[in-house]
Fold these 4 entries.
Entry 1:
Amino acid sequence: MKKRFEKRGDGLVRELENFLVALVNVRWEKGDSRAEDDAEEVLRMYKNYFPLEFVAVSDEHLAKRAREEQVVEKRYGVIASQITRQDIRSETLQKVWILTKRLRRVWNEQNPRSRDWFIFKVRDFYHGGGVDAPQLNLFEQAMEQLQKHAARARICLNRDCPAPYYLSPDFRLRTFCSPICAGPAKREAKRTWWSHHRSAAAKRNKRPRQK
Ligand SMILES: [Zn+2]
């Protein structure tokens, strides 16, 4: 019997999964010029998944950071630097990249227990390592969705895939995120098959005919 997912057509579930896939596909690697754009895009498209504490560019936050700097100056005699919105924005982007990095471990892991642990590490980082159980915001709902469906996490085999981390629609073994990605591989397989069979046929034809 085919396994079916409860609430498969549920709009929220779909959105939660879209968020997970968008976050895990952020190109955070050093030197990748698209890293900032990707992170900004996730922050913009999934605004509701990131509370003020996460993106924190409010005046209140700036004042808090300035106070923290003063404490550092007092304690260590280091000159406190002026904190700008730009600084805080780049801190936020750094945080997105760390989330992505940790989330990719979930996709790269086969062991369910390790996967659970990596999901926990993503959540822990997101919440700043507090001890209290967090509120069930959209981010937490997405993580719970992932916890239930982590076995569907796959990496597309097409090396040119622009978003190789994906969630398979079911537990069957799939190796490409989409028919578009599977297309070149199928064509390649066909070409290999043909060239193999052509050369075999050529060899056959070379053989002197028996009368
Ligand atoms: Zn793909």
Note: Residues 1-7 have pLDDT under 50 and may be disordered.
Entry 2:
Amino acid sequence: MRLSRYFLPTLKENPSEAEIVSHRLMLRAGMIRQSSAGIYSWLPLGYNVLKKIEQIVREEQNAIGCQELVMPTIQPADLWRESGRYDVYGPEMLRIKDRHERDMLYGPTNEEQITEIFAASVRSYRDLPKLLYHIQWKFRDEVRPRFGVMRGREFLMKDAYSFDMDAAGARRSYNKMFISYLKTYERMGLTAIPMAADTGPIGGDMSHEFLILADTGESEIACHGKCLEMDWAKDIDLDGDLQPIVDDLTSRYAATDEKRDPEVEKALGDDLVTARGIEVGHIFYFGTKYSEAMRARVTSEDGDEVVPEMGSYGIGVSRLVGAIIEASHDENGIIWPDAVAPFAIGLVNLKVHDEDCRVACDETYAKLQAEGVEVLYDDRDTRAGVKFANMDLIGLPWQLVIGPRNLKNGIVELKRRATGEREELSFDSVLAKMRG
Ligand SMILES: Nc1ncnc2c1ncn2[C@@H]1O[C@H](COP(=O)(O)OP(=O)(O)O)[C@@H](O)[C@H]1O
Ligand SMILES: [Mg+2]
């Protein structure tokens, strides 16, 4: 993409409405634009990152046999009357009437919808277990939308649902998701720590929130100091028995607000760490709550009628864009981890009016593209200082600088955004490096 043609409305000044660094940088880097409180348009650079994150989530869901479908954003209220949630779900639910005066709503989540789909079509134990997910926009009319995409009203979530014949099966599904979440975050360059979360009326130990630590996080957490040093995403065979692995990973104290235990914390002494964190995922086992109410029934091998056991599993896809920036930036701007970067490399032409320089840049651009490398090519007629500042702001992992002076010696400068390290290389070695 040539920057001269790209829609990248960057801002020079810090927008005053933004309280935290990720929100400021997303606005300044031209990634999003607010439409109304907690509702955003995603501009090309931001949308690009959102899609990268979505794709990692998708691949890791598919890897555990979870199948993608897509459910509507607008749901009939009757579905929620069946589960009994229409009246209890508070003002966060956006309620709408259609032209026939039928009650509709903009989905804040999809337990009812998926259970209805499942109940209508699955009858036999042979079809279980089933893991289904979608990546779809949600609406929750939050009292206090804030921090940009971190707490929006409209936001993109991956929500998955599991159906199993019994509680043991549900636990296997839960464990698969648990491990797959750790892999998902690790691929994005994040360390997300699973923490015991409130299970509600079901009780037990099968609810975890996944948090990344950040001073700007909305959740207060407490954990054993060792949790901060653990290798969460070690290589794990997903087809093996995951219970001992999950038991091991959850053996150290790590709890969110409602689950904190003063006794345990006192006993931990100096090992206790309290911090703030950003909730980037939440997994939950809720037994037969929805399957019972919505009359999902499956015939067992012995011919008995069984109410399937369910769980639900959310990842805040749009929140992750902000969360990654919170975890990875410096005073000059964003530092994208390679896996979610909107472009792999930014190519900077230092002197667009110098014919040799222009030709060298155009050729390098073409070659990189031919190699399948995603390049953002700054071919604009602006000062070098502006170009460097822009590149640092938007945080592409590599910057390739081509100027007339180095060009005479057949040399270009490659900068790693994260470390600021610069190398002078030949054209060929740059291509080889990016290729591989
Ligand atoms: N208002 C929001 N804005 C952005 N992301 C959200 C919002 N609410 C929830 N999420 C994301 O979706 C995931 C699943 O949501 P869930 O646990 O149901 O929400 P909550 O924790 O607000 O009850 C959360 O872990 C979070 O990452
Ligand atoms: Mg939650």
Note: Residues 167-187 form the longest helix (21 residues).
Entry 3:
Amino acid sequence: MSDDKKKTPKEDFDLPSLLPFMTSFVSPMMQQGSHLGAIESSLRDRLLGESARTLEASLNEEILRHPAPMVCPRCGRALEDKGIKPKEITTLFGTITVRRRYGYCHHCKKGDFPDDRRLGLDESGLSPEVKRLSGLFGGETDFARGSELLWEASRIRLSSKQLQRVSESLGEEIAQEEEADVGPDHHPLPFGRTIYIGMDGTGIPMQARETRGRRGKQADGSSKTREAKMCDIWEANRVNKEKIPVKDPGSVSYTASIESAAQKDTDLELSAFGRRVEREAARRGVDKAARIVVIGDGAPWIWNIAGEQFPHAICIVDRFHAKQHLSDLSKVMFGAKSAKGESWTRERYDELDQGRMDDLLKNLAIYEKTFPEAKRCRAYFENNRERRRSPEFWAQGLSTSSGVVEGGCKSVVGGGSRSPECTGAFGEPIVSWRFDAASKAADMTHSGKDAWKGWRHNPQENPRENHG
Ligand SMILES: [Zn+2]
């Protein structure tokens, strides 16, 4: 312990050379009339360069003086020292060359860099901090833009391709962790409370190789998108001004991927997405809840999973999605922004919110002969009528909106679809990474990785979120 203490650098140690340096840097610039912005940015570049140089020197000196033990990480045998192999590493301060030793294990017939292992370096050539930041920027927006922002914010120069690779590798790590970890997370278990499970699917643009051979909506039967599916679990114990329950901050956890939810009655195994939902439910302790509510947009796969895994759940069609069906239909029948369409839509919304399903179905049936869309819409409400009994649900103190799922899906898809030509669209691991980034944005706390520390969710960005 005392040994460790000696080795820890003191936080308040002096940099005796810094003040004279600063003065000699700042003073001539001010005398030439530079404003602080110019001083800041040239000082930053200068300090970064200086730090990179000295960091490189001290790292290499330390490696030389105290090299990591030359031991094979696989079998524990001694490695044959094959000398120094320098490698360029991008760090927060710039690119440095690390002169680390290479060793070879004759038993495993594999080489290793013990110093890389000690420093947390991998084959990417990026320092751990640079990797973490690349993950944040790559998860937030498309890769070309992410690479620009990374440069502006931190003077780290990475190509959009590099950013994509980092996001992909983080996505793969996350996927592996998710499958391995089904222990309870640190959300309080919902004993005696109501827990909400939202599910949603959304088409996302994909690279051609990801959709090859899949049937889709393109004229030639091919597909440009694949459906990402998302499950999120939350609690809603607080109410807003209208006495409608809203989700508890910090209670939301997400999981998502591009997986099939297809399930036949004769299948003994759950679908891949069904298993994902099962794992998330196990982590959240859903079986301890007094009430389980499943909220979805009305897609049959959602009710299938609900029926299979949560047979006692109250199933609710998301209020926003239900209304979306009506406003879409109104546009088809009366044109966008027509006064008639608007008043028609308002009346149908009222029927929906007041639970007057017979009236709603009757009013849709009127247009059935003229518009096939009206027929489809009526069938949708007919099929989901038991799941859209708003007044009854509200009387039970239940939330009927899955805004949080929507928000998560949108932020993920939005990040890439703004400019798919820049991103080369998505690969599967990216989706996993982006969804995880979105989870962080919504305050999710279940995973052990901390690559996204500092992500914040702004509820203003998603006005639907707190609607009942
Ligand atoms: Zn070995």
Note: Residues 106 and 147 are 41 Å apart (CA to CA).
Entry 4:
Amino acid sequence: MQETLLNQSVSSSVLTEQSIAPCSTTAMRSLCVVSGKGGTGKSMISASLAFMLSEQGNTLLFDADLGVANAHILQGIRPTHTIAEVIAGTASISNVVTPCYEGLDLLAGGSGVAQLASLNGGELELLAAGLRSVEERYSHMVVDSAAGLSRQTVAFAAASDRVLVVTTPAVTALTDAYAFLKVLLTRRPHCRPRLVINRVVLPEEGERAAERLIDVTKRFLGVELECVAQLPDDRAAFVATQEQRPVVRGGGDSPLGLALMDLGRYVSADLDKVRPRGFGTSLHNHLIG
Ligand SMILES: Nc1ncnc2c1ncn2[C@@H]1O[C@H](COP(=O)(O)OP(=O)(O)OP(=O)(O)O)[C@@H](O)[C@H]1O
Ligand SMILES: [Mg+2]
């Protein structure tokens, strides 16, 4: 991993978890699936986790890859409304969510709308207020993030109750995951992101990758990362994409499907432990912070 990325430690003179304490009575628990590098499997994982969580209670899948959204494809639906209308101020979030199936709604990102990839403060505030108004309808929200270190990817992660950092074993993906962690932990020092290594071909490679990232994060950021899953590289991901369904839906007995089901059980239990902060309120606090 590049030396330059490893030389700085996180400043402690930043917002603490206490200073962004919950001020909402929401019961909705939020999980943000992030990575530094693109194409690590965030959408594939989010699709299956949202499906599994929806079996326990109403779940909102928020396609936060705004502008080049594609989470709807993995749920086999074609949304007629998107978040672009919320940002334009012409619709409320409850009017633009698309039901996927019993228990799961999708908040679709707009496709081909470049402006959505870099929302300004006012637009993000509009989104925060909109999300706050629908939170009481859902027990869980899964945020399928865009890749990279934009203001909004970091704000969405910082506002979520839990963050899942997805990387492949490739050194480029690990380096970018570290860069994301560094910025996130500067913003939210008490956050304890969970790590997922995806597209693992040889288990020992996955293990080495996890050890490497855990080690640098501990040494340079002072935070103990926990690796909660190693997901195999598996053609089941391609097949599920072609069939426009989450991997765990109707074919979850592949090695990837089984590993995702284990991850889903972990995530569900882990989210049960959190005291929900209210995503909309928390996003608002991070924007003004
Ligand atoms: N475990 C896996 N085994 C095989 N293929 C996989 C696996 N995980 C993801 N893929 C494939 O990798 C590609 C990228 O996956 P996906 O779209 O979920 O990544 P992403 O992180 O959401 O990308 P982006 O950053 O562009 O949003 C897809 O073609 C997907 O089917
Ligand atoms: Mg994606």
Note: The chain has one domain: 34-288.
